[in-house]
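Marked as duplicate of an earlier ticket. Keeping the data here for the record.
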Amino acid sequence: MPRETSRSRLAPAAAPAAPSTTRERILEVALERFRAHGYGKTALREIAEELGMTKAALYYHFRAKAELLEALATPVLEGFEQTVVDAERAGTRFDAAALLEHAIDGLISNRRVASWLLRDFSALDHPDIGPRLLAVQDRLRTLLAGPAPRPDRAARVACALGAVFWPAVTLDDAELAAARDRILRTALATLGSSKRRR
């Protein structure tokens, strides 16, 4: 059974408060439309209409749809990037169980954005967002499998990461939070070790 560790900077927080500023309301409506219709099929005009504002008023806060995507995705990506950096800095002292735990907590904390981003290929076509997400996944694989893993190890790591990330797409908030420890145990069992193999 994985040991208890302190929650990462991505740890689940209390339920988010209702948006209080115009910028927060715009992001909330944009996220809901992106989740329902996809980034590529959502127009700024539709977001403005749902908010009851003109496109000019929306442009005051976000000059392009890509700025909405960046504002939603960047904090989540930065959190995962920092988790990976912390593990990389630990070197041989890095703990795979803690790394996966932090990843799961980040997904729980940011499930609404993460679950949309992981399945919306039109959002991942963005020249910064898609490559950053792929880079994080590549660095996670390298941390867990090493730089030149044997095929069986590479497959185990790929399956373990699938066990961590896929529930964020398929489970709702309550289900994902309730399954946290089971997801971690499953990922570690699939990995076959709580430490990186060199």
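See parent ticket for discussion. The radius of gyration is 18 Å.
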